[in-house]
Amino acid sequence: MVGRVRTGIPGMDEVLHGGIPERNVVLLSGGPGTGKTIFSQQFLWGGIQNGEPGIYVALEEHPLQVRGNMAGFGWDVRKYEEEGLFAMVDAFTAGVGKSREYERYIVHDLTDIKEFIDVLRTAIKDIGAKRVVIDSVTTLYINKPAMARSVVMQLKRVLAGLGVTGILVSQISAGERGFGGPGVEHGVDGIIRLDLDEIDGKLKRSLIVWKMRGTSHSMRRHPFEITDRGIVVYPDRVLMRKTVVELD
Amino acid sequence: MVGRVRTGIPGMDEVLHGGIPERNVVLLSGGPGTGKTIFSQQFLWGGIQNGEPGIYVALEEHPLQVRGNMAGFGWDVRKYEEEGLFAMVDAFTAGVGKSREYERYIVHDLTDIKEFIDVLRTAIKDIGAKRVVIDSVTTLYINKPAMARSVVMQLKRVLAGLGVTGILVSQISAGERGFGGPGVEHGVDGIIRLDLDEIDGKLKRSLIVWKMRGTSHSMRRHPFEITDRGIVVYPDRVLMRKTVVELD
Amino acid sequence: MVGRVRTGIPGMDEVLHGGIPERNVVLLSGGPGTGKTIFSQQFLWGGIQNGEPGIYVALEEHPLQVRGNMAGFGWDVRKYEEEGLFAMVDAFTAGVGKSREYERYIVHDLTDIKEFIDVLRTAIKDIGAKRVVIDSVTTLYINKPAMARSVVMQLKRVLAGLGVTGILVSQISAGERGFGGPGVEHGVDGIIRLDLDEIDGKLKRSLIVWKMRGTSHSMRRHPFEITDRGIVVYPDRVLMRKTVVELD
Amino acid sequence: MVGRVRTGIPGMDEVLHGGIPERNVVLLSGGPGTGKTIFSQQFLWGGIQNGEPGIYVALEEHPLQVRGNMAGFGWDVRKYEEEGLFAMVDAFTAGVGKSREYERYIVHDLTDIKEFIDVLRTAIKDIGAKRVVIDSVTTLYINKPAMARSVVMQLKRVLAGLGVTGILVSQISAGERGFGGPGVEHGVDGIIRLDLDEIDGKLKRSLIVWKMRGTSHSMRRHPFEITDRGIVVYPDRVLMRKTVVELD
Amino acid sequence: MVGRVRTGIPGMDEVLHGGIPERNVVLLSGGPGTGKTIFSQQFLWGGIQNGEPGIYVALEEHPLQVRGNMAGFGWDVRKYEEEGLFAMVDAFTAGVGKSREYERYIVHDLTDIKEFIDVLRTAIKDIGAKRVVIDSVTTLYINKPAMARSVVMQLKRVLAGLGVTGILVSQISAGERGFGGPGVEHGVDGIIRLDLDEIDGKLKRSLIVWKMRGTSHSMRRHPFEITDRGIVVYPDRVLMRKTVVELD
Amino acid sequence: MVGRVRTGIPGMDEVLHGGIPERNVVLLSGGPGTGKTIFSQQFLWGGIQNGEPGIYVALEEHPLQVRGNMAGFGWDVRKYEEEGLFAMVDAFTAGVGKSREYERYIVHDLTDIKEFIDVLRTAIKDIGAKRVVIDSVTTLYINKPAMARSVVMQLKRVLAGLGVTGILVSQISAGERGFGGPGVEHGVDGIIRLDLDEIDGKLKRSLIVWKMRGTSHSMRRHPFEITDRGIVVYPDRVLMRKTVVELD
Question: Which residues form the KaiC domain (chains A, B, C, D, E, F) (predicted)?
Fold first, then answer.
């Protein structure tokens, strides 16, 4: 029986029948504003509270802003960075031009997946990480879709090889179906999809676990909310999205 | 608790539960004729009335016409330009051929994002701007979509780094879904979408806040009107767009 | 208060709440057979009757045929060409091979937008034109869509700079949505869309003003007819297009 | 008042309110099996019976087979070829490899639109043709869609210049909307669309005149049949195609 | 009156009002699993039983497997190959690498349409073939769609020139509309479409004759079955496919 | 009468009217999370239990993880590898960078289909394999779709030539129709499609046999479940998927 990693997100572990199976690499897929980043940060915070070191690889925000955003939900990671329970990998400044290097773990060239993996591997070993979030993996192949499968495969291999449970954040367009392309969605151990839908003039949040290797899981679409303490999932409620036919 | 920037648009701050959180960079997305330019100019005028200096980066209209259009709504910015409460960046004439340089802040080459950012940064520092509108950001990558994410990321970094709250106007096609492409819509702190829909032979205006970092906000679609004094949003009303199936 | 240009099309000025605001450059968009050319010629004829000189830039038909077609509706422009109230720019023969040069204003190379603008500017100045129709602007970028925004921007600047009110005819495919592409539809001051729809086995004509800078306007879809005296719009009637789901 | 060319197709002239206006170049558009070739051949036969010489430009079938197919409907053109009331232009063998040259008018290189036009012009002048069918014009630009508008424009200019009324057969895919692409459908004087639809398990034929310069025409969709004497149109009946939502 | 080729498929000749007109080249179009190959082999077997020699050009299966598959339906062609009533052209092994050359008629290079036609012509002349099946013609232009029209035109010319009635099997994707592309579907004398549709959880087979030069034919969609003796068509029954709206 | 290969999946052989016909090469097609890998591994395990040696070609997972995953369902293959009833071909490490070579059968270069086939052929001969699974075949042509048909054809020829019954796993995107592209879906002897659909907020699994050469089979869509002992198919139940119209 494979062990479980508790997400620490209220209601989510019930949806997952106990948590994410250890060493699984899970695609967390959703459009803009669906809560992917909050979900993944809450997952890391849940690990810290449980004594499981975690790493956040920042590709979309400056590490300083990431820390600030997390603190806004009550998840102040700075203390845990000092204690070796949390680490930040700065893969953001590489994408927007060089800046002073405040961070300990820095990826300098996003086009070099080998450097990316080397930095990630070092960080994992340094703190003995059990959880890793890459937010987002999409940015690693945004302008070279033919590389998507290879990038995801290499990441998965490194993470699984080091005994880490990983979340790969996958950015998709609003209203896009699928989870990030065939090369990506078949390569991962699990897929969690976050949705934000306009129904009768109101925005509704929901999530569905599309696949999860090594465990059964809820086969239903569950509503969730984003509160000022993070995400709350309702495992006992089901959202039925109305059939909507839209302008193309 | 992060501070708020009051939009000054009647009804809009209620929709935003108090205004746009400071330093957020917000995508203002909509098709032709939806009122994006009016919304963004009214936002700057609201700042001026509040003593907060603002900058309008003109990419779609000649600065002279921008001033005229604003004056048509009662927003005469010329006095405030002299007082240092408002500044115009002319990134329009660069796109349509060189002309006599009347403007103080001019971008000469739109293909050079570095120059664009340098001029913008200078203008922000000169007047101590608190609000910036780039109308439209779409023009900066219209013929090079692979650059969209990078451009938005760099702008966001500069604006946030200088303590500015920004609106990036995103032009989308009539009937197009999404907000301007995946690289753009995931990179910003907030998304406000303006819509113009034909329903039973009548055109209806509405807006919806799709995401806004650092605040809760209305999760509903609100009707709005364009009057001769600018936009008025109805925070207590909800527009339910009918299900429409259209010729593809 | 900006002045108005009366279209001279029965019913249309009511739809526009008084006419097109002076110096506006308006996209007249529609599929094949929707009446774009007739609308734009009638607009010029309305100007002539009002003492406002006008120019028709012919890109789709030989100037001789244009004059004949107009005469068929009772709009015989030849007398007014002599009086300097009307001028034709021949940008048609350039596209189909050189011919004897009967016309006074001729564009020889459609790939050279500068020449096009020079000829147009000369014609405008020669007769002191107040109205210009370019039929169609689509042909100027039909095989180079990345140039569309730039072409429209340059035309708009020239026309507005010379105090002219302009109609740019935009050809779209039957059943196509939008108005001619994002670069085009965001750059203009107004959009009028003409439609021809098959509803229950019958063809129905209608138009809708999608945007018009500087004026309020009807927000409804109005039926119109093409008679042997030109277009008649019904400002008091609304056409509700049925929801139609079609073979893709 | 422009003269009319009687199609000679039972019921069709009523649909056209008297026939096709002289010198119009009409796009006859339809999917496979809709009857385009039969319609256009019947149009030429109608001319012969009326003493108006006609030319069939064969691009899809060998001229021998064209004559045979026509004879199958009772339209034996061989006698009229000798009398100078009918001529065939062989633009077919050029497309499938060289063969012995039985025909009087032969186009040797379909990629050379100038040669095509020269041969066509010669044939028109030789017999004083009043009607021309090009079956199909699509083949002239099948592998170079950017040339479509230019080809149609040149053909239209030649035909109109020689006083000929023309039918350009436009092949579209089954279920495709539109009439053959924007460059084509805006350039012609008229559009007649032939349709073959499966409705409740039965195939139904219908046609609609989408536009026709110089005349009013029925604005309805009319059923028609293909008999062993050619096409019969029912001008007093209307076909309402059911709303059909199909697998994409 | 043109002669008819009896298909030998129970019910099919009634659908065709007597069979396929002699020398017609018919596109047999359908998705995977629709029964195209069985239909075409049964057509050849019907010819053999009628004393009309036939040729099967194998592009999708090894000739040995083709013979085996046919024998599985009770159509053992080996005896008839010896008697000169049947011949196989091996155009399969060329596509998957060279093998020992067991077959009498072999196409070595599928990229060389001239060699293909030479081999086919030789085989036709050797046995005096009256029927030819090319299964599938799609493979001849699968990676060069711009060549599709030219390939079909050349094949049609050769087959018709030699007095042969031909079936060109056209492979389309599941759920795809049309019959194999505009260049193909307009060039042939007839189109028979085979369909396999999931309706309320059950797979249903049906066919429809979309066009057939030289004969009237059923204008309805007929159900058919694949039995262990081949295809049986029900000319007295009509299948009405339900309107289905599917995920795109 | 062709022999049958029993899948060993409860309920599946009833659906197949006795099992997969010997030597058939079957496409097992489905989106992410549909159970393709489990189905194919269970098929091999069923063979082992029946004394029929089988080979799993791993392209998506490391061979060690494949063994672990199978063991999780109670299918511990290690003993059978030693006994020569099971073999693993490692075509995974080639795709993600070289690693220590633990495996007996290794493909080093996925771009070299000849090497792939050589290794596969050797493994088949070594253990006298009767069943082969390639998971997934999609990876062999993911970045070169024009090669898909050729790759599938070569594989089919090798497998059939060696008397093997094969399953080719085909990865398609969530919501995609078809089975993996026209070149692939027409080339195989059978197609089994696995589906995972969200219906009223719940995920439902079902499968349908789209084609299977050499046998009749259920023409219905059957629900199935994934249990901790593998897949269970319900041959007596039918799933009717609701008509769903979705955001595009």
Answer: 3-247
User: What is the arithmetic mean of pLDDT over E55-78?
Assistant: 94
Residue D14 pLDDT > 50, yes or no? yes
The runs of H, that is alpha helices, within A5-62 are: 12-15, 36-49
Distance of CA D166 to the CA centre of its chain: 7
Q: Measured between CB atoms, does E215 come within 8 Å of chain D?
A: no
- Flag whether residue E1 sits within 8 Å of chain F, measured between CB atoms: no
Taking the C-alpha atoms of residue C112 and residue F179, their distance in angstroms, rounded to an integer, is 49
Q: Is E202 on the interface with F (CB under 8 A)?
A: yes
Stronger pLDDT, E62 or E27, i.e. the higher one: E27
Distance of CA F83 to the CA centre of its chain: 23
Question: Could you give the angle at which helices F113-127 and F148-161 cross, rounded to 10 degrees?
Answer: 20
Q: In the block, which residue shows the tokens 């009647």?
A: B10
Q: Which two tokens stand for residue E39?
A: 């239909």
Q: Is F202 exposed, middle or buried (0-12, 13-18, 19+ CB in 10 A)?
A: middle
**Spatial distance between the Cα atoms of C53 and C80, rounded to a whole number of angstroms:** 9
pLDDT at position D110 is: 87
Over residues F131-168, the pLDDT tens digits come to: 999 999 999 998 888 899 999 999 998 998 899 999 99
Helix (H) or strand (E) segment spanning residue E222: strand E222-227
CA–CA dist A210, A16 (Å, integer): 11
> Taking CB atoms and an 8 Å cut-off, how many pairs form between chains E and F?
83
Number of H-type helices and E-type strands within chain E? 8, 12
CA distances from F24 to F159, F168, F191 (A): 9, 11, 10
In order, the DSSP letters of D172-241 are --TT--SSS-HHHHTTSSEEEEEEEEEETTEEEEEEEEEEETTS----B-EEEEEETTEEEE-TT----P
ipTM over 0.95? The verdict is no
Alpha-carbon separation of residue B76 from B43, B64, B82, C24, D86 (angstroms): 14, 12, 12, 21, 74
Over residues A196-228, the pLDDT tens digits come to: 999 999 999 999 999 999 999 999 999 999 999
Strand locations in chain C, DSSP E?
4-5, 20-21, 25-30, 54-58, 86-90, 105-106, 131-135, 165-171, 190-199, 202-212, 222-227, 230-233
Over chain F (248 residues), what is each successive 10-residue block's mean pLDDT? 90 98 96 97 97 97 92 96 97 69 88 94 98 96 89 92 96 87 88 95 97 95 96 96 47
Residue-range domains of chain A with CATH? 4-246 (3.40.50.300)
Which tokens sit at E83?
């008697």
Asked if C243 reaches chain E (Cβ–Cβ under 8 Å), the answer is no
User: What is the per-residue pLDDT across D101-118, written as a single tens digit (0 to 9) for each?
Assistant: 678 999 998 888 999 999
Q: Which helix (H) or strand (E) holds D150?
A: helix D148-161
By CB neighbour count within 10 A (0-12 exposed, 13-18 middle, 19+ buried), where does E133 fall? Answer: buried
Encoding tokens for residue F38?
Answer: 């489990």
User: F103: Cβ–Cβ under 8 A, 6 or more apart, which residues?
Assistant: F63, F88, F89, F90
Q: At what angle do helices F36-49 and F63-72 cross, to 10 degrees?
A: 80
Q: Do E190 and E2 form a contact (C-beta atoms < 8 A)?
A: no
Please provide the average confidence, as pLDDT, over all residues in chain D.
Answer: 92
Contact C57, C120 (CB under 8 A): yes
Residue whose tokens read 């006599």: B100
Backbone angles phi, psi at D117, to 5 degrees: -70, -35
Minimal C-alpha gap between F83 and chain E (Å): 33
Please provide the average confidence, as pLDDT, over all residues in chain B: 92
| B99 pLDDT more than 60 | no
Contact call for D202 and E220, based on CB within 8 A:
yes
* Contact by Cβ (8 Å): A212, A20: yes
* Annotated binding-site residue numbers of B for ATP: 30-37
Cα–Cα dist F143/F135, whole Å:
17
